[in-house]
Write a structure and sequence with these properties.
Blueprint lengths: L2 H14 L11 H29 L4 H27 L4 H16 L15 H15 L7 H6 L1
Helix pairs in contact: 1-3, 2-3, 4-5
C-alpha cells in the first residue's frame, strides 16, 4: 500500500468512525480523530502567529520554519496512522465481538451469511459493522438494555 492510498484510507476511515463518546475509551482512533479536527481548527492561527513572531521578534528563520513544518505534520501523521489502523487486522478479542454482532444482524436478516470467510477482518470492516448495528439494533454491540442491567 503506497503513501497516497494510506492517506485516502485514513480520510475515509475518519469519516466512517462513529462520533459517540461511549466508544472513545475503547478505540484510540476516536481520540486521534478529535485531535486532528482540533488541529485543523487551531493550526492556521498558530501558523500565522509563528509568522508574525518571526517578523516582529528577532527569531531565527530556521526555528520558525521547523516549528511550522512540525505543526503542519501533526494532522498528517494522524491521518496516516488512521490509514494504517483501518487496514490492520482485528485482535482476537474484537474478532469475537465482530462475530457476535454479525450473528445478531444475520438473525434479524439485515446481513446475509457470507460464505467467503477467508477475508481478513480489519478495523474498517469492524467500524462498518458497528455503524450498521447502531442503525438496526439500536446499540453499538447489539446488547439489549434488559440483559445488560441483569448482568
Amino acid at each position: 500500500m503506497n503513501l497516497v492510498n494510506t492517506f485516502k484510507l485514513g480520510q475515509r476511515y475518519m469519516q466512517l468512525c462513529p462520533k459517540d463518546k461511549e466508544l472513545i475509551y475503547s478505540f484510540p482512533e476516536l481520540k486521534i480523530i478529535n485531535y486532528i479536527k482540533t488541529a485543523k481548527k487551531y493550526l492556521p492561527p498558530i501558523i500565522i502567529g509563528l509568522l508574525v513572531w518571526q517578523y516582529y521578534l528577532p527569531a531565527q528563520l530556521a526555528v520558525t520554519v521547523i516549528t511550522i513544518l512540525f505543526s503542519i505534520s501533526l494532522p498528517l501523521q494522524g491521518i496516516f496512522w488512521l490509514g494504517k489502523r483501518a487496514h490492520s487486522p482485528l485482535p482476537l478479542n474484537l474478532v469475537d465481538c465482530y462475530n457476535r454482532i454479525e450473528l445478531k444482524l444475520i438473525e434479524r436478516k439485515i446481513l446475509v451469511k457470507n460464505k467467503n470467510t477467508a477475508d481478513k477482518l480489519t478495523f474498517e470492516a469492524f467500524m462498518k459493522l458497528i455503524n450498521l448495528s447502531k442503525i438496526h439494533l439500536g446499540s453499538y454491540f447489539g446488547e439489549d438494555d434488559n440483559t445488560s442491567l441483569n448482568s
